[in-house]
Structures are given as C-alpha cells and as structure tokens.
Amino acid sequence: MSKFLLNRTGPFLLALVAAWGWGCGPSSSGMLTGSGGDGMTGGSSGAGGASGGPGGATETGTGGATAGAKGTGGTPGPGGAPGTGGTPGNGGEKGSGGASATGGATQTGGASGNGGSTGPGGASGGSTGAGGHAGAGGAGGNAGAAGTAGHVTGTAGAGGASVTGSGGNAPGTGGGPPAGSCGATPNALPFGCKFAWGINGGSPTTFNYVQFVSNWAGYNIQANGTFSSCDQCGWLKSTMGNAPQVPALIAYLIGYYGHALGYQDGNVNPNGPNLTNSMGRVLVGTDNASCPSGTICASNVMVKAYAWYAAQVYASYKKPILWLMEGDFIQYSIEGSSTGLSYDQLGQLAAQITNAIKCNDPTAIIAWNYSTWISTSQRDSYFNALNTNMAKLGTSYEMVFTTGTGSSTSAGTGSTWAQLYTAAGNKPIYSDESFGLSAAGDSWANQSAATIDARIAGHVVAANITTATPSYLQSNLTSTLAPSALNTTCF
Q1: What mean pLDDT, rounded, does the chain reach?
Q2: 317 φ, ψ to 5°?
Q3: Given pLDDT bands bounded at 50, 70 and 90, which one contains residue 467?
Q4: CATH 3.20.20.70 at 4-36+176-485, yes or no
Q5: What backbone phi and psi angles, to 5 degrees, belong to 352?
Q6: What pLDDT digit, counting tens, does each position of 394-416 carry?
Q7: 397 SS3 class
C-alpha cells in the first residue's frame, strides 16, 4: 500500500518515495533509515526547574505583598527560587519544585510570620510558600534583604511573578502527557499571503532566496520510545536561529520508532513484519497500556515522545516551525492492515500528538500527511476522523502535507488540489517532490508563473524542491516564480 522508501545518511536522511506518496506499505516503497539514537532522558518525570512551564508564570508572588507589610519577610527568601515548578509542566508531570514548594514550610520568613502565613508564594507553588516567591522575586531577592516594608510590598510581588514567569517559559524535559488542550485556534502561516519555496537540508545562507528549509526529525528514537537527545535542536538553535527562513521538521517519529522495533518498510519486507502490518497493534496495544482499552490517550508512548521532542524544540527555537507529520500516516490504519487502527483511533492518535506538540511548542504550524495513493472514500474517512477528533480534544492543525507534481492538476487518486483542500476541511496544502531514488524530476520550479498560479488556485501554498538542486533554481525563484511575482495565497 505504501509508496515510500526512505534512506538516511549520517544525521540527515534520504528517503525513497514514490511519485504518489511517501508510504511504507506492503506493495511499494517505504522509509528506510539509519540506526536510532540513544534513550531519552527525562521521560515522563519532568525536571522541575526546567519544566516550570506555564505554572511558573501564574505564581504572582501574592505572598510578597503581605511579606512586605510584615517587615523583613524577604530575607534571602530561601524557598523562592525552588518554587518555580508551580503548575504541572509541559508533559503534565509535576515540576519537582511545584509539588513540594520546598522551603515553604521551612524558610525563615515563613514560620516566623515574615509573610509566611499569608504569602503562599503563588497559588500553585505550595500552600505554605511563606512569601518565598516574593522574597526571591523582589528584584532577585534584593528587596528581601533590604527588609523595608515599602520595598517588599507590591513591588516585590511583581518581581516574584517576573522571576517565576521566566522559568515557566522554558519547556520542561519530562515529556509527559500534555496538561489540557492546546491550540484550538490555528496558528497563522508564517508566509503571510505569499507562496513559499523551500529546500531540504540546504544551508540557509546558500539558499537565501527560499522561504523555508526542511530537515528530517526523530531518527534517533530508541525501541523504548525515548531519546537521549533532540536530533535537530542543534540545527534549529545554531543554524536556523538567526536565519530568515522558516525551519520545517519532517517529523517521522512513529516510522523511526517502528524501525527501532525491527519493523522494516513495506517494500523492504513486504511478506514479513513491517510498519504497515505491525505498528497498528503496537500503537493501540503495548504503547497504549496506560490508556483506557481501545482509546488513544495522552499517556500513549508516541504521544509522550512527541511531547518531549516538542519541548526540546521550543527550548531551542521559539519562532514558528513547520511540523510535517508522519508520511503515509494512514498506513497504520485498517487501510494498511486488518490489525491496524480504526479510522477513529487513527484520528485520536493524530489529535493527541497535535495537542502534545502545541502544548509544548505553542508556535508550531502542523501539517498532517495525505497519501496520494488512497481512494477518495479513504481520503474522506481519514480527514473526517482527524478533524472530528481534533475538535473533540480542542486542538487544531493548520495544513495538509503531501507529495505532488506541480505541473499536474491531480493531487492523488481521483483528487484535484482543490478537492483535497475541501476534503481536509479547507486546509492549505504543502507539497514536496518526494525523496531518494524514487523522486521524480523537478515539476515545480521549472513551471511557468501561470502554472504555479493554477496550483495556488487549488490552495497549494508551499512547495519543497527535494530533488537534486536544479541549475535554474535560483534564477527562476528570484524572477518569474518569485513569491512577489505569483498570485496571493490568501482568498
């Protein structure tokens, strides 16, 4: 069923993708990658300090206001700094400081009336925070040392909120389930009303005429569903941190995880265990053991893996990122195998992963994959399941991610680009040109402006040139096919 074979060299990847999709199904190319990485640290436990999360910001240091009135309540505020854990961190696990509010019961200002009894140090920082946040927050604890009532009141409280807030902004490393729903309103696309051109794995300096640069993500996941490090965080921070282009992560965590478990792509091992005929029962079975039977929840192993990875991404890069999700995702459903997920379960998994990413990387622009080899009825069932479960969970995705031919009106089996846009619930479309040996020749950057404008009319808003770099690429993309020379992508 799939059409995609992926090969990776070193930390980057090359992948075999057929002209009509990415997939890993039994009858065509799948994705082949290198070895996975080391195990993930932090797992679901969350390091309190780093995962202070949004909770840190809510500890407004009300204890500080009272501590000031009491006098010298700010003296070094020994509990102040540890109290940044507050509300459960990104993954939903408690920050180590939040749950216990260390120093609340024992700090010198607390028990002695120096703001302790009335200054809880933030609603979620511990019931006896004893002005700890106010003392530490008062201009970094200086106000506390001054011991003057006027200086510790109000001003110190505001300082406390500021200090804890800065801790909260940094994502945690625990990678636990997301707390609540995130991203009910889709994020705006980072390209405005302009068509965007991209390149895969290239230097943002060399390709300074494109609008985004992509790289594969998640290839060092281990057989237990964890990472020892974020494989693309260094790239995001060091290479893309000051680049004008938007980074795009081709997120294939489930596929790489399946490889780590020994399940090859469908074209590599069509008659034996492979991603298509084996991963469905893993995703709803052992990986889902902490969830209600048959229901994909936030405790699913792959949902937690995405939560952790997204937290590391946001720690490295706090600007918008395109997340291009799971090529041939439909292969894990009943369309791939009788042991696969139902459409509803597939939609639940997509919604939970989307929510996990949005809760940990709030600027994420998420595009779920469409496999061009599926029928129109399968297409409609697939997107209905995704959109229904996104709405139930109170989350959202922004785009459709697919592989297509720029010179053609067809977006897949029986679908035009405009029909795909409608079937997906009016989601703008991102297309690449496939990868590896199965990649067709360039069919986007060598077209006329009229042809690309026709694709724009079908709601294609971005194209990634993933074949060998054509000699004419820079010339065309800075002249007749420059975003400013094409029609608007806003309708």
Answers
A1: 73
A2: -155, 110
A3: confident
A4: yes
A5: -65, -40
A6: 999 999 999 999 999 999 999 99
A7: coil
What average pLDDT does range 65-85 have in this prediction? 35
- Residue 339, phi-psi category: left (phi > 0), alpha (psi -120 to 50), beta (remainder): alpha
Neighbour-count burial for 19-53, b at 16+ CB within 10 Å, e otherwise: bbbbbbbbebbbbbbbebbebbebbbbbbbbbbbb
Closest C-alpha to 53, from 307, 391, 393:
307
For residues 193 and 452, what is the distance between their CA atoms, to the nearest angstrom?
Answer: 14
What's the gap between Cα 39 and its chain centre?
19
Check pLDDT > 90 for residue 266.
no
Give me the amino acid identity at 469.
T
- Listed in sequence order, the residues at least 6 apart from 29 whose beta carbon sits closer than 8 Å to its beta carbon are 2, 3, 4, 5, 16, 17, 18, 23, 265, 266, 267, 438
Structural element, H or E, at residue 377: helix 376-393
On the question of pLDDT at 103 being above 70, the answer is no
- Decide: helix, strand or coil at residue 447: coil
Q: Which amino acid is at 256?
A: Y
pTM score, whole prediction: 0.68
With a CB cutoff of 8 Å and minimum separation 6, the contacts of 298 are 92, 177, 178, 304, 307, 352, 355, 356
- What are the boundaries of each domain within the chain? 4-36+176-485, 53-169
